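Q: Fold this one first, please.
A: Sequence and structure below.
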Amino acid sequence: MLRHVTTGIDGSPESLAAAHWAAREAARRGAALRLVHAWEWHPRPGPSVPADMSERALAEDLSARMADSMRATHPGLRVIDQAVADSPVAALLRAAEQAELLVLGCRGLGGVAGFLMGSVSQRVVARAPRPVVLVRVGGSAVDEHFSAPDGISPEEIPGIPYRDVVLGLDTGRSCDELIEFAFDAAGRRAASLRVIHTYSGAPSVAAADALVPMRGPELLAEHEHAVTTTLRPWREKFPEVAVTESVTEGRAADELIKASAGAALVVVGRRTRETRIGTRIGPVAHAALHHAPCPVAVVPHA
């Protein structure tokens, strides 16, 4: 089966930003880029549909033009375009099943305000069976790298080292898929991986038939040991990835957003277990999606 990175397109600046990021990621993975444009039939087409074209023809034309643009901008990349007669959510979820990664564009709110996610993005992120990356409009390849000297040409940008990949880690839950994705992302970029783990409160330990609050240094040491133990097999599997660990008391979302400033990518998890109110993204992933200034990868895991 052909390996590919998939992105949804609709002609908007958001989808264009996502397509370029997806193209760069496909190149890093040695995979193809698949462009999916979902369109829905209406008995009375809107004003954006020319009188001499059907909705299908317009969708196929947009898809083909975007594919040509990606091939011209990213020479050597295999690009596959597909116009699908279906709702955007259904089409993207089905496409994600066959992809290594799904990339979606969201409107940036400026500064460090993060993303403005539409209903399609939220529903796809919450239900996709594969990792989903949200990309802000206005981002570019330059933003993934450390600051370059003045006067550098676009062709020289790939030679500038990548910024760190940041991973939000909860050692209390199984998350092999999440950790592997983060290490792999850092390895493909020859970037450092910065692991963020937080804890709160002071749990008690049994001592002489009484519960004694664990002291701050002891609690910190316990969490540092848990992080080191969790990461050990992944350090061995990805020896080329330089890893730094940050273990602090505080709110996970706050520390992760703080670490995302100046990062190439933030990686967070989403549990695949459904609740009575349906599938949820989770508070930490939700905060990262709304406030991280860089692309955010949401990785489903058990």
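Q: Good. Now the second chain.
A: Here it is, same layout.
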Amino acid sequence: MEWEIVIGLETHTQLSTQSKIFSDSSTRYGAEPNTQANEVDMALPGSLPVLNKGAVERAIQFGLAVGAHVAPLSVFARKNYFYPDLPKNYQISQFEIPVVQGGSISFFVDGVEKTVNLTRAHLEEDAGKSLHEDFTGPHGESSTGIDLNRAGTPLLEIVSEPEMRSAAEAVAYARALHSLVVWLGICDGNMQEGSFRCDANVSVRPKGQKEFGTRSEVKNVNSFRFLERAILFEARRQIELIEDGGTVVQETRLYDADRDETRSMRSKEDSHDYRYFPDPDLPPLVIAPEWIEKVRAAMPELPRHKRERFQEKLGLTAYDAAQLTMDRATSDYFEQAAAALPPGQAKLAANWVLGEVSAALNREELDISRCPVKPVALASLIERIIDGTISNKIAREVFTAMWAGEQNGSADAIIEARGLKQISDSGAIGAMIDDVIAAHPATVDEYRAGKQKAFNSLVGQVMKAAKGKANPQQVNDLLKQKLG
């Protein structure tokens, strides 16, 4: 039987506020346990929550960015469950009326654009953290510790429709979402610190069946690589279970990266199990149109608008525009380089940013903000290609030297110091071609007999004689003339 995977993602995005969603405790990461939790976070009797305006504004930003409806009135609810790291025994969240409703995320998978619709995005507080490993109690006994530093950290939980049909699609969606929230500045995107965590709802069904299968939720996956592997394993587990005569049960599972497998954590609750009801300590959240417009006016240019501008004004392909707007730093780098070039050369700048620059950054594991070749310096190198001073091949050699800091990273100084100027004198190139033709009569005969590879071989011999410095286009044109 042929099977289809059905995937929906719930993404917990920690918002970049300095204080928590319902208290003034700091959200700084890495502090000593329980040093950033006050009476509200610890649920001491008589303490009352006060909503953080900055968290609401970040939710509004996200809603505008994905084309969603920002609710003029939304309600906070109590989600009741009982874990040691949840001191109130309920989580303040949103249920029936979330702040962000609908919207969509677009992304590319294997060069093809896909759009996934969003169900909602709602504000809520994070729980604390249970410390199980290498933790001992006051008498040296094996224990579990509770750290409430994270309790009350503002989250925007972003829920997609179950419209993804492969692990690759899910990862591309998660990357696009991650890129957007970082672009907006509403989340730092640090997955190692838990700022961006995905829950994957995975089910399988026979190809062509409309009804969804029973889903399992793989909880708190904190890397794109692990997300892909977790989905692949879980889908394979469900298919094998069904084909062996078993039944998939609705449950929450954890992904074990060391074993590359998911394992059962607990049965999966339905919404009625949480006994949601409106929080009596928090009034409805009212968002006036004027507030929305004020937030909109302060937002950066959105990736989708920048993509459109790159295509319409700079002549880039949809794919190149999408790649250049995956993150704001890369987009800014490209724009600065393109602006320093003559009009009509943006495509060349895009090729270099997505090619040599990206490859070098990946090798060094650097963010583009730490790129040693600055945008204007890259543009000066590209100009030497445009004006014929150097070839593309030589330009890559110059770029490597610029990266290493040679001649203070100046393309012109490196070209001069290394003697890399391209030979464009037709007389000098013609003389080298005559020598090559005379030295390789058999190859010349093969070309005249119709073998294109022979021509390429002769070009290679001329370039070798010129030590790579001859203008390739002139070599091609003159060689064709001389061969008749």
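Q: Anything worth noting on the second one?
A: DSSP finds 15 helices and 17 strands in the chain.
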